[in-house]
Each structure stands twice: as structure tokens, then as C-alpha cells.
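Fold this sequence, please.
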Amino acid sequence: MGEVFPTVRVVAYFSTMRKRLALVSSVLALALLAPMSADGVEFGQDATGDPNAVHIQGNTSGFLYSERIILTAAHVLGQLRIQANGDTDGFVYAPGLADKTNAKRYRIVKAFIPKTFINADPTKEIQPIDDFAIVVLEEDMPLEVKVEIATEAQMIEFAKLKTKIEMVGYGLHNGSQRLKSMYDQNRAPHKLISYLYSPEMMVDFHTREFQVPFWKKVEWGAIHKKEYGSICNQDSGSGFYVEGKNVRYYVGTAGNGNGISNCQADGSVRFANNGGMSWFPAPFKFLDLLKTAESFVSEQRKNEAAKLEEERVARELKEKQEAEARIAAEAAAKVAADAALLARKKSQDLAKKRYFGKTCAKLKSVKNVSGIKFTCVKKGKKLVWALK
């Protein structure tokens, strides 16, 4: 998932657009303006060790929001084999890893997608809508940086002040990786910088630069240039954010774009004249969905705590039963030992009564009865048994 549309479909789509709008004159220009899945950071910088960028199944990106919640794009989730109830068997690596050869895999147990999500289909001129998703992990993943969903007011302010936004993804870095292996699990994450565009700014940009309304519903966006870095295949799902003091304000999910270079296999650079653009729904729209995911996590923790308590009670009961059994065994052993000691004493008393001082036949002869040794000694004119 998260790849650019197949060439045949792109050509068909833009052939239709060309007839309708008569704005472009070549296949190259059409490809440049093509809406495409925002799937690697080209011209970016190494971001190994980033605390929030995660590699999902080794072939797409995500953003660690909390210990168990990852934000990503809805269109990449087909690979997770999501069931009708949202269950899945996908996995995620810990954030910021480059070499994942022996890395732990964190299992994904649930996925949440907006009911309003519509996947893109360029052949039918269907615009992707609300391309956003949340996945929940089975266990906690280390979280080093606090994340907050930017409010609408904050996003308006970021756009107005041209505040720098950043994005770290696991997509392709250049076209040579497209030729070798697009699904290299050991690809390092890369970072790009950009600037946030409000929906109004997006309308203005596309009116001036492309003169083509690529969507019926306008969303937020981020501009891409060679000096900033650009999205590429498998960056889908990575998060745009504003770095604050000990917090990252999440402003959008990489999902779709146009006019970007997109790691051309021949090594050429194909940005639109004034840069390309990616667009995404505002994350503050999905706070209810996030609350649902957080409730699921809360229930997870509650069930885990109950299971741990059940295991603790069972363990303590077992230890108590084992201790009681040990005490009972020790008591029984003592009773048996006391009984054996008493029986031996009685036997020895009988032996003394029977032999001590009684006549024996041969001097210095020895007899052992019930653990008591008797020896034949001379006493006066008699030979008698004495204790040895």
C-alpha cells in the first residue's frame, strides 16, 4: 500500500483532465501534476533515532502518539488484513530504527478508521477523503516525547506565521531504491521540513500554480521543494508536526500529493515550478475517534490489570497451599519420627531389661540388640552382660 498510482491509470486519468481543462500538453507535465499517494522523504536528512517515526510491517510509516497508539493513513491499512470488527494481525517496529534485522515486533491488535474515509481512485476522479487511521498495539512501546493533536486555532496560527513543520518517514530516499528493493525493512527514517498551508492557502496555491481543482473537498497541506525534502513511496502514514518544548504538535498525516518528484527511477527531479504539495485532513477532526481508541487502550489495561490480579491471587493461593502441604508433611514426618523414636526407646528398654546383668556364656562376646551393644564381662565369679 501507499504507492503511486500505476502508470496506465495515471495516463487515463490525466487524459480525461486534459480534455476537460486543456491545461497540459505532455505526458510529463501530466505526471508532474498528478495526484499521487504520498508514499518517502526524498532530498531529506537522516533521522535515525527519531522518537515517533515507526515502520509499519517494514513497508509503510506511522507516528507514535502514545505508548500504544500510532497515527497513520487509512489507505495503507489493507496490508494489515483488518477484519470487519477492526481486529488485525499487523506489526510495528520501535521508533527511529534503521537496522531492524533482529528488532522486536510490536503486534497491532486494533485499527480505527473514520467512517468518512474514501480511498483515492484517479481513474474515476475520486478524491481521497479523511485519509487518517489509528492503530493500537498489544503492549506499550517506549515513548520519549509527548505528543498533542494541534487545535484548529494552533494550526491556523502555524500557517499564518509560517511556522516550520517537520515530518519523518520510512519511504524511499531516491530512485535507486525503487530499482533495487522498495520493501527494504532496514531503510533508515528520513526527515523533511515544510510549511503548513490552511485550506484557504491551498485553494490559492492550486489556483495560481496548477489551475486544476484536484479535489472537491479542500484540506490542509504542506509544501515540498528540493531544498525542503519531498515525500516518496512508503512515507504514507508518517506525521507532520511542529516541534515545541518537550512536545510535538501533530498537524497532519502524509497521505497524498501532487507536483512532487517522488523518487524518479531515472534519477530525474520533477517538482512543479514552485514546489509540490501534499494534503491531509486536519487531525483535530478525529478527536472522537482518538477518544474511542484511548477507551480501547484503557479497557486493554483494565483487562491486563485484572489478569495480573487473577494471576497474583492464583499464585498466592498456590504458594499458600504449597506452604500448608509442606507444614502438614513436616508435622506428619515429626509424628512419624517421634513414634519411631518412642518405639526404639521401648525396644531398647526391653533389650536392657532382657540382657543387662543377665548371665552370658563367653567373656568379651558382643551382642547388638535394638541399637544397644552388650558385652560379656566378669562380675565377681559370674559372666554377665554389660553395656559396651
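The radius of gyration is 39 Å. The mean pLDDT is 86.
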